[in-house]
Write a structure and sequence with these properties.
The chain is α+β, with helices and mostly antiparallel strands. It has a single domain, classed as Alpha-D-Glucose-1,6-Bisphosphate, Chain A, domain 4. It is built from 6 helices and 7 strands. Helix 1 crosses helix 5. The longest helix is centred in the last third of the chain and has 23 residues.
Length: 179
């Protein structure tokens, strides 16, 4: 066996090991961040429960001033929908699919570009004894094989988590100014 053949065999074995490792990764992913806001839940609620208000602090909307967006369905609440198309943050839609007024909003998040993905997101509000509100932003969904393989090299929690942290800071500033 010459040196080139040995190198190719080693690369093939390494590739198989990488693919096998990726296959063992979890079938779902979850990203979650929290922030404590010095404002009552009644003041924070409208900023998470209505998509136009959400886009006042949405970190992805702020990444691209040329984003093309459209609202459809109900003006607020279940059935309210937001579609976007952007060179910076891709294309997709966000739709409110559930709501517990004053406490939580569940959303269906569908990405078209840069890759297709179908996830769920939620904003949950928890009043604290001192009159503040803890806000939790979560996103979860299936991890197909390509997602698992990418996850070997890219930490989804850190990548998306940074954006969630920035968004929650934007929300905090907006809600606390009103308080």
């Amino acid at each position: 066996m010459n040196n080139l053949s040995l190198v190719l065999v080693c690369l093939g074995v390494a590739l198989l090991m990488l693919l096998a490792y990726a296959a063992t990764r979890p079938d779902e992913f979850r990203v979650e961040r929290r922030v404590r806001i010095a404002a009552p839940a009644e003041q924070v609620w409208p900023l998470v429960a209505e998509l136009r208000a959400f886009n006042r602090w949405n970190p992805y909307e702020r990444k691209d001033p040329l984003i093309k967006s459209a609202y459809s369905g109900a003006a607020s609440g279940v059935g309210s929908r937001y579609d976007w198309d952007s060179r910076e943050v891709g294309s997709g839609s966000l739709e409110i699919v559930g709501q517990q007024p004053g406490r939580a909003v569940q959303l269906k998040l569908d990405f078209v570009k840069p890759f297709e993905a179908h996830n769920q997101a939620e904003f949950a509000l928890q009043p604290t004894p001192d009159g503040a509100t803890e806000v939790r932003w979560t996103m979860h969904g299936p991890a197909n094989f390509i997602g698992k393989l990418m996850g070997v090299f890219i930490n989804m929690d850190k990548m998306v988590g940074r954006d969630f942290e920035a968004g929650l800071q934007n929300l905090q500033q907006l809600a606390e100014v009103k308080a």
